[in-house]
Amino acid sequence: MSQTQYNLPLLEAVCRRGVLCATSVRYWRGCKRLNAEDLGLDPANVSDRLIQLGHKRLVPREALAAFSLIESRAHALVEGSSFPFLGGIARFVPNPRLAGLTEGLDKLRDEFREATLDFVAGYGPLREKAMEEWREAARNLNDSAERLLITIEQSFPPAGDITKRFGFESKFFQIAAPENLRLEVSESIDQMEIVDQRRRVAEDAQRRLQSDLDGFIRESVTTLREETARLAADVLATIDGSEGGVHQRTLNRLTSFIDSFRSLNFAGDSHLESTLERFRQELLTRSAEDYRNDSNAMQSLRAGLDQLRSNAVAMVRTEGRDVLSRFGQLGGRKLAVAS
Questions:
Q1: CA 68, 73, 74, 77: dihedral to nearest 10 degrees?
Q2: pLDDT at res. 44
Q3: Domain ranges of the chain
């Protein structure tokens, strides 16, 4: 089987199971990088050990707190619903997570729009108040005060341009295999050399694609297995450190994780999925109160968590190779039938 024949089914399988997402949250950071000249100092005579300049806030932190919060929530939402794809050029979102992600991003985009309108409406007074505070702070700078204040004032965007500094964008892309390079038939030796060079580039791209896809699938599988092991260990520590035993929110945390795993398991890690489902059926049908009132049941829960942790750790050591070997088989059969 050639490199191209192997790559296409693998990429096709990835394409069918999710999309790429790129989310960008832009807003004016309200900072200015000051240098020695801004303070009337000679850079040659300024020691980094004694004086720290760098980025300084033009406006109070709280003036932009809403945007910082929305940005962190957007990144957390995307990261919780996806995997980094090919070195982080985008995030791969499995199909079961797509609807929830787009709904969540739409809500955050609406919040961002409202926060932008409020900020733009109050930008003029905010800028004037900030300049008053900078004038007060610059009184002790003597001859360099005027130079600093000019620098600060020029660092504020004009009121008519401030809206352009804000943006919330989410783009979704369908993954597709690169089109084959067209190799024109020519009797020219120069043309033939170019064709040969392009062929070598295409073959190298195929090898890189194969390696990148293999790594992406293995890393995604390993990430979920590591999270499973970490959760089991955390829950065990929580139970052991609690005088009252297990709490319902702890059991709910386990149930939510299993549901989340199923929607993120685009690579088809059937081994871990069946392990988690068995854990749910055997140990998550009881309430926390039942466990607290039955020492034998509590011991079974601890043993089950310890076994789940051990199994997940053992799976991590395979580095996802067991799942990768099965991942592209459906795409391969489909391609073979069509050819």
A1: 160
A2: 46
A3: 12-173, 189-332
